[in-house]
Design brief:
It is a single chain. β2 (28-34), α2 and β3 (51-52) form a beta-alpha-beta unit. This protein has 11 helices and 14 strands. The longest helix has 15 residues, at 273-287. The chain is globular, with a radius of gyration of 20 Å. With 323 residues, the protein is an alpha/beta fold. The chain binds nicotinamide-adenine-dinucleotide (NAD). Nicotinamide-adenine-dinucleotide binds at residues 9-15, 34-37, 40, 71-74, 76, 94-95, 121, 123, 156, 171.
Length: 323
């Protein structure tokens, strides 16, 4: 394979970031795009040169793509992935890989059977600090996990619609939930509480909760808690803290902290996780080595299952009455 020819389905903000990232890699060519918004597709063509197709199937049948980046919003998933796999086209599906677990599982099964190289958007796994944390934690008992995703409301209108995004946990905090799975193992029982407090002051049509807390147990016997809000524009946090017998480990952004009897260290890495994620996907395609991908579609399906369980919305306040 001379160059890996890439097509995009959905070319919004995240797709454009991937397009810019792929330009930093050798042996990659952006050949094809499709977006339901033809104007947006034309913008991408004018800026980066790919051919615009009138539909997903036209793009897949063009013979011009070896791999597809699926970058549609969560509500627009489930219809095309099996067509991609059936054609032997490799797939990077942005997170979350849908909103319906049964559909995602069916697609995951088909992808695994097809043998295509597959990846998801769980980019934090590629941080050097996360890899060091994983090595440190290997074989160690985890007692407790504390985690947070706190920030302001993203601008896309679909984001604040529960039936379109799944809410902050499913759409965004899924990165932290995925990291907990990756570093500390699988969840067992989950109890969550959500409320809609002030989001309608920003977006009167919003249907997602804007604050939430989750308590959970893990299969290992560990316990944990998770807190999230999307109406905190002036303070952000996306941490995973892990407590075990005699140690404390925290991933905060690009920073890893470990405190134990032998060390009290904090180190920051400079990893561009999108670059490493896209590089691993392309390299896996070139070499046929799926193991280079740190977050396969199947892994993303497991994380979707966890976030859907986390995100089972139990409003504790009447959204209309909330101040
Ligand atoms: N990994 C990360 O860090 C990260 C960051 C941001 C977004 N994302 C994910 O990327 C995906 C896209 O997010 P975004 O921020 O780019 O959203 P966006 O709204 O900016 O872009 C989505 C694009 O998809 C197009 N689209 C919608 N339905 C479509 C359909 N049926 N067929 C073709 N195109 C369609 C829209 O017209 C739009 O251009 C989401 O799943 C999101 O969670 C991942």
């Amino acid at each position: 394979m001379d160059k890996v020819r890439i097509g995009f389905i959905g070319v919004g903000g995240m797709a454009e970031h991937h397009i810019k990232t792929l330009r930093k890699l050798d042996g990659v060519e952006l050949t094809a795009v499709y977006d339901i918004n033809a104007e947006r597709a034309a913008q991408i063509r004018d800026a980066y040169g790919p051919e615009v197709f009138a539909g997903e199937r036209e793009l897949l049948d063009s013979g011009k793509v070896d791999a597809v980046f699926l970058c549609t919003p969560p509500f627009a998933r489930g219809n095309i992935e099996e067509q991609i796999a059936a054609r032997g086209i490799h797939l990077l599906a942005e997170k979350p890989v849908g909103l319906d677990l049964e559909t995602a599982r069916r697609i995951g099964g088909m992808i695994a059977a097809s043998g295509i190289i597959n990846s998801s958007g769980y980019c934090l796994r590629y941080l050097e600090t996360v890899q060091k944390a994983k090595q440190y934690l290997a074989g160690k008992q985890v007692n407790m996990v504390l985690s947070y995703r706190i920030g302001g409301l993203p601008p896309a209108k679909w984001w604040a619609q529960l039936d379109k995004s799944g809410g902050q946990i499913v759409e965004q905090a899924t990165h932290q939930v995925d990291l907990i799975r990756y570093l500390a193992g699988e969840f067992d029982q989950v109890q969550s509480f959500y409320a809609q407090r002030s989001i309608r002051g920003i977006d009167p049509q919003a249907t997602i909760p804007d604050v939430g807390v989750v308590s959970f147990t893990m299969r290992s016997g560990a316990v944990g808690s998770f807190a999230n809000t999307s109406v905190s524009p002036h303070f952000g946090r996306g941490d995973v803290e892990i407590f075990g017998p005699g140690y404390y480990l925290a991933i905060k952004g690009h920073t890893l902290t470990i405190h134990d009897a032998d060390q009290k260290t904090t180190e920051k890495c400079e990893t561009d996780f999108y670059l490493e994620q896209d590089r691993a996907f392309i390299e896996a395609i070139r070499t046929g080595r799926q193991e280079l991908v740190l977050g396969s579609f199947a892994e993303a399906v497991e994380t979707l299952g966890a976030t859907l369980a986390f995100g089972e919305t139990k409003f504790v306040a009447d959204p209309v009455a909330a101040g």
